[in-house]
Design brief:
The chain is mainly α. It has one domain. It contains eleven helices and no strands. The model has no long low-confidence stretch (mean pLDDT 89).
């Protein structure tokens, strides 16, 4: 299957050219720095500055350890979204431009890659904003379904099965739908960075690739995304068992690492896929 060949090519690119991963390491640094700041909100010296904001939005309870850890996943999700949109829209194209340089056997230059990323920034930001908007809308619809399922009172039968499926399967449904949404948009980002100057041209290239290589693009995104499944299982275990409160922080940090790894594999693989037809043309 071509998806596995692309993943192997992406992994080889990162292994042979360490500089390609440098922008992704920086993105991970921003994620973990945000997690650290959010974790220490109830403590000095952050509490006097950020504590009133949390208190006004969520109440006094979340200013005290370990109750603030109940709120931490939601706050970190918001922080990750902001970092991904405004910094990821720059750092991911830098990595894509480096993959492009390596693919064409040119010296990997961070300066040139950064210049290309800056020029592509508005288009990439717009594409990611569109993709994230769809994902957030989908998440809202799914949350409503979960809330309705939670009100089912049946203790047995098909309605009980439906309730259990929605309550325990929601994270996996959400993950699958994220992969589907990304499949139809994500190839536009390498297309912008590697030569499609206008966003309309990038979307046209994206949809042509998706039409021609839909199973490949889906598999390239889906297979690395399966790394999220163990984390979802561990989070569920942590909720229903007596674990250390800091387990939440560890799982969130691990999730950030997995996110960056998946982004790196997907975008490197899609960049190679975008460039391959050009070489054979």
């Amino acid at each position: 299957m071509k998806a596995f060949w692309l993943m192997r090519s992406a992994a080889g690119t990162f292994a042979d050219n360490k500089i390609v991963a440098a922008p992704l390491y920086l993105l991970l640094f921003f994620y973990l720095a945000a997690l650290e700041v959010l974790y220490f909100i109830p403590f000095a010296p952050l509490q006097p500055h950020l504590g009133p904001v949390v208190q006004r939005l969520f109440g006094d309870l979340f200013l005290h350890y370990p109750h603030h850890l109940l709120l931490l996943p939601k706050l970190f999700q918001y922080a990750q979204l902001a970092i991904y949109l405004f910094l990821g829209s720059l750092l991911i194209p830098v990595s894509i431009a480096l993959v492009d340089q390596v693919y064409h056997q040119r010296p990997a230059s961070l300066r040139k890659a950064f210049g290309r990323a800056v020029r592509a920034y508005p288009q990439v930001l717009l594409i990611l904003t569109l993709m994230m908007t769809l994902m957030l809308w989908k998440m809202g619809r799914l949350d409503l379904l979960v809330q309705r399922a939670a009100r089912i009172r049946s203790a047995a039968g098909p309605f009980k099965l439906l309730k259990d499926f929605m309550l325990f399967g929601a994270p996996y449904i959400n993950l699958f739908l994220d992969v589907v949404i990304q499949t139809f948009f994500v190839a536009a980002i390498p297309a912008v960075v590697t030569g499609a100057g206008r966003i309309a041209d990038a979307l046209r290239i994206n949809f042509r690739l998706v039409k021609k290589y839909r199973p490949t693009v889906f598999g390239l995104i889906f297979v690395p995304s399966l790394l999220h499944v163990p984390l979802h299982l561990l989070r569920a275990t942590a909720v229903f068992t007596d674990t250390l409160p800091e387990t939440t922080v560890i799982l969130l940090a691990a999730g950030a690492c997995v996110n960056v790894f998946v982004e790196g594999m997907v975008y490197a693989g899609l960049t190679i896929l975008c460039l391959s037809p050009k070489e054979s043309a």
